[in-house]
Amino acid sequence: MAISDRTEELHSSLSQILTTKQGKVAITAGPATVWILLLLLAPMIFMVIVSFLEVSRETYDIIFEPTLKNYQALFDSSLGFWESPFVKALLLSYGIAIISTILCLTLAFPLAYLLAKRGGQTFKVVIFLVLLPFFTMYLVRAYSWVLMFGQGGVLNSTLLSIGLISEPIELLNYGVFAIIVGLTHAYFPYMLLTLYASLDGIDFSLVDAARDLGASRVAVMKDHILPLTAPGIVGGSLFVFVPSVGAFITPRFLGQGKVQMIGILIEGRVNGGYAIGYASAASMFVLISIVAAMVLTFRYVSIEELGGG
Amino acid sequence: MATESQESRNTDETAHESHSGLLHFRTVERILSLSLNTTAVVLIGFLWIPLAIMIFLSFAENTTTIFPFEGFTLSNYAVTVSDGAMWNAVQGSLLIATVAASIATVLGVLASLALTRYAFKFKELYRTFGIIPMVIPGIVLGLSLRIYFQEILGILPGFMTVVLAHSLYGIPFVLLIVTARLYSFDESLEEAARDLGAGPLETFKDITLPVIAPAVGAGFLFAWIRSFEDYIRALFLSGPNTNVLTIWMFSKIKNLDAPELNVVSSLIVFGIAAALAIAMNFGNVSGYVAGTVTEEEEA
Fold it and tell me: Which residues of A touch B37 (CB under 8 A)?
């Protein structure tokens, strides 16, 4: 049979290649390298180039002539540096991301501690209840908060009909508060699971021993538990902070046009007017800040510690 | 944190010798454990209340508010199930996720073998770049790929560009899970097989693959879910004729077309609940997740 001959041939030539060390590395590391070079590095490099080029407003063609216009456009505004849409959006995104990260951390720590300390059937049920929203589509979770917030949303209308309030509360309308709640809800499971993974390694009999020997709870927390979970805290914060900065869906729906975070700004410039030069320049700043956050993080935690288990 | 405030209240309780001290100690234990449990319940409520209300509304005559309650109905489900555009979108997303996750799994498993079994130049750089597609914000990855495909390669956005983007995005999830498994794998088994005359391909097929199969499956599942739920990359890389469920849902949310959205979203929660319950009975899902807690940057 021709086909089986062909497979036979392929098989033997593959085995031939796999006998040398270079052959092995080429076959295993090669394919992903091609993907990374062609679909990650090349597009990123081209985006950097585009951020220094101009795009024709009539034909949407790229004009290949170096310019700093895109970067000037980011910071220029009739009202000055601090009032330019880009600077405002970037600062707002950082602020919202930092608050969401702190909220996730303070909320997730007690639950992660409880999960790590107790095993058994309760653990399975709780972990199921946490994992289910985690695996549920991000868009679905964002939508569920669209229902809750708003002038006539579930929260306001329920409070109204119970009679607790006489007119809709502005805080429960779409806006910055709604976005912070939405982001906290969206990324809470990442924080929880990262913290749990690092708390799970703690030997709680040592904690009990320290307590028996007279250490106060605060001392045990400060001297034993916090240092041991520091990698989890740093890693979990990264997992909440980074996606929050570049978030798009949550600010789009829970801000309803009132809150311009950086993701909304970039998307708007591309899909309304194809201003890819401006958008590329803006993306550079998002990338740089995220790389900085990662470099800081990896001074304390290694990649394997975060991901390798 | 409730725990901390409770704790700070009794820094001075160190004398458990006396009777009253012991009583005090017990009360504090009880208050602490009670407050921890309360926090847990409140948090699970926070995670679940919006989803529960959404599921409740999918069965109700009301569409967006609970009061005044107008009664239960299944008509929302009937309307949604007969919506052809919705089914096209579901099919499109299933296909994209399956093809993209398959590519990501093959590339990710091969790369994991390279990282764990062989020494080569730029290995650490290779590992870092293998993780980056997961960490890079979706909006940046989507934008850069869109410009690249359109302006350099002349490929218009469509099915293929979404699949390529998602296959890249899926690699880190496979890589992290499979390398972890390979590191803990007893390499002498492979050596023994080779000593007994098995070629490198046979060794991989008969020895290595069966052992790492659960990890490979988990990696595929993660890459699949990430592709299926992605919106922002698909937004930049899909064309007008590409069917993507998240894009269909997005336009519905924009118009607050609640009846169908409530139903589709609830069906997704039910489906994932069933799949998760089955998976948790068969495998150590929480172990995989806790070990590979990763970036979402849905953005």
Answer: 114
**How close, in Å, is residue A1 to chain B by CA atoms?**
22
Given CB atoms, is B40 within the 8 Å cutoff of chain A? Answer: yes
Q: In terms of CA atoms, which chain B residue is nearest residue A211?
A: B14
Rounded distance between C-alpha atoms, residue B145 and residue B77, angstroms: 38
Q: Which residues of A touch B277 (CB under 8 A)?
A: 128
Residues of A in contact with B251 (CB under 8 A): none
What CA–CA distance (Å, rounded) separates B17 from B215?
A: 52
Domains of chain A: which residue ranges?
Answer: 1-51, 60-307
Is the minimum CB–CB distance between B69 and chain A shorter than 8 Å? no
> Which CATH number applies to B78-291: 3.20.20.100, 1.20.140.10, 1.10.3720.10, 1.10.443.10?
1.10.3720.10
Q: How many helices (H) and strands (E) does chain A have?
A: 16, 2
Architecture per CATH, domain A60-307, reads as Orthogonal Bundle (1.10)
Q: Which residues of A touch B147 (CB under 8 A)?
A: 43, 46-47, 50, 276, 280
Burial of A102 (0-12, 13-18, 19+ CB in 10 A): middle
Task: Confirm whether pTM is higher than 0.90.
Answer: no
Of B11, B107, B297, the CB nearest to A218: B11
Q: Cα distance from A44 to chain B (closest Cα, Å)?
A: 6
Number of neighbouring beta carbons within 10 Å of residue A209: 12
Half-sphere exposure of A241 (CA within 13 A, CB side): 22
Interchain proximity B139–A307, CB inside 8 Å:
no
Rounded to an integer, what distance in angstroms lies between the CA atom of residue B213 and that of residue B217? Answer: 6
Whether A225 contacts A219, CB under 8 Å: no
Tell me the two tokens of residue A239: 């997992």
Contact B41, B29 (CB under 8 A): no
- Per-residue pLDDT of chain B (299 residues), as tens digits, is 444 444 444 444 444 445 566 667 778 878 888 888 888 888 889 989 999 999 988 888 877 777 777 778 888 888 888 888 888 999 999 999 999 999 999 999 999 988 888 888 888 888 888 888 888 888 999 999 998 998 888 888 889 999 999 999 999 989 988 888 888 777 788 888 888 877 777 888 888 888 888 888 888 988 998 899 899 999 999 988 888 999 998 988 888 877 888 899 999 999 888 888 887 776 666 566 655 443 333 33
Chain A residues in contact with B276 (beta carbon < 8 A): 128, 131-132, 135
Supply angle C-alpha A273, A274, A279, rounded to 5.
115
Given CB atoms, is B295 within the 8 Å cutoff of chain A? yes
pLDDT at B292: 43
Tell me the pLDDT tens digit for each residue of A169-208. Answer: 888 889 999 999 999 999 998 888 888 888 877 777 777 7
Cβ proximity of B140 and A286 under 8 Å: yes
